[in-house]
Design a protein that fits this description.
Elements lengths: L1 H47 L9 H8 L3 H15 L30 E7 L4 H12 L3 H9 L3 E7 L1 H13 L3 E4 L1
Antiparallel strand pairs: 1-2, 1-3
């Protein structure tokens, strides 16, 4: 009879452990769901902010709003090429060009503009999306679109300091990033 009691106690302990594990999983799922809801609310708030668009541009703006991140990136490239402009933030003034610091001149110029490319996000997809959203000050859907298209160019033509800062922020979130 004592063996039956021991078996029943062991079964009861196992059931309690299973219940505790299940409760922990449910709590974790609830927390993730709350985070997702908060992100969606933030995104909706971003979208709710109305920008006054002149009537002559309304059709163009409506078409642009319906584009994916990839399509927008292509559009920016076309506009840059067509009009010879850059959509990148202006870089800080560089010092006057002179010879290399060591006096040698190997004919190669130092790269001054960098593209930040997300190569992988590992197990940290949500954290990387949040980091992109925060660093670029964009909506959740746009940030998610960039992560879903890995490998993807997150920012183009950044100066070295800005590119390094963005790379560091994305790597801290769990992403694998390269500067090109």
């Amino acid at each position: 009879m004592s063996e039956d009691n021991n078996n029943e106690e062991e079964k009861q302990e196992e059931e309690e452990k299973d219940e505790e594990e299940q409760e922990e999983e449910e709590e974790q799922e609830d927390e993730e769901e709350e985070e997702n809801e908060e992100e969606e609310e933030e995104n909706e708030e971003d979208e709710d902010e109305e920008v006054e668009v002149p009537e002559k541009f309304e059709d163009i703006v409506e078409e642009i709003e319906e584009m994916s991140v990839l399509e927008l990136s292509e559009l920016v490239e076309v506009l840059e090429d067509k009009f010879g402009v850059s959509a990148a933030a202006p870089a800080a003034a560089a010092p006057a060009a002179g010879g290399a610091a060591d006096g040698s001149d190997d004919g190669e110029e130092e790269q001054t503009e960098f593209d930040v490319v997300l190569k992988d996000f590992g197990d940290a997809k949500i954290q990387v999306i949040k980091a992109i959203k925060k660093e670029l000050e964009i909506g959740l859907a746009d940030a998610k679109g960039m992560v879903d298209e890995v490998p993807s160019t997150i920012e183009e033509s950044l100066d070295k300091e800005a590119a390094e800062e963005l790379k560091e922020a994305l790597e801290e979130a769990g992403g694998t990033v390269e500067l090109e």
